[in-house]
Amino acid sequence: MQGEGQAIGGRSMASMTGQLLVATPALKDPNFDRTVVLLVAHEPGGALGVVLNRATEVPVADVLGDWSALAGEPAVLFEGGPVQPDSAICLARMRHPVRRLKGFHQVLGAVGTIDLSVDPERMRESVSGIRVFAGYSGWGAGQLEQEIEDGSWFVLDALPGDAFVDRPDDLWPMVLRRQGGMMAAVAHFPPDVSLN
Q1: Whether the Cβ atoms of residue 113 and residue 104 lie closer than 8 Å to each other
Q2: Alpha helices in 55-95 (DSSP H)
Q3: Band of pLDDT at residue 5, cut at 50, 70 and 90
Q4: Residue 13: its pLDDT value, please?
Q5: In degrees rounded to 5, what are phi and psi of residue 109?
Q6: What pTM did the predictor assign?
Q7: Tens-place pLDDT, residues 152-179
Q8: What is the spatial distance between Cα 109 and Cα 188, in angstroms, rounded to a whole number?
Q9: SS3 assignment, position 139
Q10: CA pair distance 42, 8, nearest whole angstrom
Q11: Distance between CA atoms of residues 145 and 12, nearest Å
Q12: Phi, psi of 73 (to 5 degrees)
């Protein structure tokens, strides 16, 4: 974990930037049912992330034609979350994670956000793949921490490939299974069973 800590319930919490939020079966918001969110920013003022496992059927080429050659399979837009669905956030995986590149903001290892106003041709040598998200998931100060305390989210370590899996619908159970133990059992929780 990186960044500044913040006080939550009298204790300090480090930045969760680069971590995964995995929806628990207790989470009741249909926007986040069985979602896996990569936190791209987490600061005292709030948090911002993108849902990694909600692919649309809209090809990247239809929206950002010049960037489509860098989009991995499936080369479609993803629903990043319910906030500002007309905006776009782009995640990229760099070939050389230690090299600094204008327009790239590191989130986790070789993965980070990339400025879509940059010429994609300039990025071709450095970027091994992108994924484009329409909208994002956002939380105000203390809101995400409260949802975690309430049992709505598991906070888990991300692997660099999580944001670029070619079968995004399988990401929720895949991330849970690799944790082992009781967490792996949650991956088999029936989708239509309520915990209330």
Answers
A1: yes
A2: 60-63
A3: very low
A4: 61
A5: 55, -120
A6: 0.89
A7: 999 999 998 999 999 999 999 999 999 9
A8: 30
A9: strand
A10: 13
A11: 11
A12: -75, 140
